[in-house]
Amino acid sequence: MNDYYTNEDMLAYSGTLIVPIYEEDPVPAFITEALSCDLRAEIRRTSGALTTVHTLGKMQPNILCFVGMGKKDQISYGAAKHALGCAFYAQKQDCGCWIDAAICDALSPEEAARAAGFASIYSTYRFTKINAPHPKELTVTFFSDAQVEASVKDGIQIAQCVNHARQLGNLPSNYLTPEAFVEEARRLAQELSLSIEVLDRNALREMGAGALLGVNQGSGKGAYLITLTYTNAGDAPYTALVGKGITFDSGGYTLKPRTSMSGMKYDMCGAANALCTLELAARRQAKVNLMAVLAVTENMIGPDAYTVDDVLVSLSGQTIEVTNTDAEGRLILCDALTHASNKQAARIIDLATLTGACITALGERYTGAFTNAEPFLQALSDAAKASGELLWQLPLDEEFRQQLRTSTVADLVNAVPNGKGGSSLAAAFLEAFIPEGVEWIHLDIAGPAETNGSASAAKGATGVMIETLNRLLCS
């Protein structure tokens, strides 16, 4: 719950007040005068630094939480989200936020308000332990003399959809099973009046989605291709968001070591983020035609599980020799990419926690990007910069493609033993399933899909790229 008031009303607010402050700015005169002291030396102003001041009854706000915004010439919407997020993350009770103190030449009133709204939801999110009561949500009161309520609400809506993806990612895999994922997709489709198609094992077998079914063979749970469709741009072509939804990844018979098994519940974050990107577009009533194609299953061991040296026949008809059962994400994605193409998507963006090699190359903060359409990727890169998310293009060329065509029994191998540039090899595999004329971007979110926690966000799934993709799709 949120309230909106003017700066004059702020002086009568009795809770904790978040006060943004830049390195160049003095402490506001009304605060200095009310407290009868010079706080210049006490206030930390580097980005995200917090300084708590108890007013001891000298002002109506009983606590001032100064949050450093850094230098004005270095501020951006993304930097403002982080700095304000640090302040909101530290709050345990209802609080207020003085938006106008964040506004400067480099940060418009609308951007400051959107950043404040986003941070108030994103940074106060906590996953509630299983069977524990849900805590009371914080009430945040926003103060501004500008007409920014709509921007605050927009920031809140973005964060709510991002948090939906985080919540799905944080659920244990015995709670977010493939079947539970299907039910969540159905629930969302009903709520937002979206069309939905759910293809189960029988339907997948009938249509010939052998790559997805191959990965599913070791699981006692189902395999699904879920397609949700949002139409609000007339006869305009569709963009497809294709998501990897491995609800738990054991590695199959190429079994992961114990230390790599923990956290494999997050291997469905690509599907969750694709789903919630479409959700945000629908809630914003964006003028776009969009589909989310989600490949959902587990990768487990069992008497019927697929093994190394097996050959799978994909939905496209191309055959694949399995050289690594832990390279399963690209197998379920290739059938999902073909399904999206068969539904006449003109542009496809896939999201997947696909390769550890991408983390090795870029660390845990950057999304790796690959494309067959440079202008399309440039537009996405611009959207990422404007949203404050980190994106980096990695190479994709003929040498990587040729390494995948070395099988003596199939058209492709799903992985190159001891291959170098693993994330590029995975992207080259996926590219083989993109028809000519379809613009395509592959986003490897293996690094930034989850976090160990930061000054502005709780540990767990992050919902990475949802805001960026919406900025691209809605522009």
UniProtKB/TrEMBL annotation:
<protein>
    <recommendedName>
        <fullName>Probable cytosol aminopeptidase</fullName>
    </recommendedName>
</protein>
<feature type="domain" description="Cytosol aminopeptidase">
    <location>
        <begin position="324"/>
        <end position="331"/>
    </location>
</feature>
<dbReference type="Pfam" id="PF02789">
    <property type="entry name" value="Peptidase_M17_N"/>
</dbReference>
<comment type="similarity">
    <text>Belongs to the peptidase M17 family.</text>
</comment>
<comment type="function">
    <text>Presumably involved in the processing and regular turnover of intracellular proteins. Catalyzes the removal of unsubstituted N-terminal amino acids from various peptides.</text>
</comment>
<dbReference type="InterPro" id="IPR043472">
    <property type="entry name" value="Macro_dom-like"/>
</dbReference>
<dbReference type="InterPro" id="IPR008283">
    <property type="entry name" value="Peptidase_M17_N"/>
</dbReference>
<keyword id="KW-0645">Protease</keyword>
<keyword id="KW-0378">Hydrolase</keyword>
<dbReference type="InterPro" id="IPR011356">
    <property type="entry name" value="Leucine_aapep/pepB"/>
</dbReference>
<keyword id="KW-0031">Aminopeptidase</keyword>
<dbReference type="GO" id="GO:0004177">
    <property type="term" value="F:aminopeptidase activity"/>
</dbReference>
<dbReference type="InterPro" id="IPR000819">
    <property type="entry name" value="Peptidase_M17_C"/>
</dbReference>
<dbReference type="Pfam" id="PF00883">
    <property type="entry name" value="Peptidase_M17"/>
</dbReference>
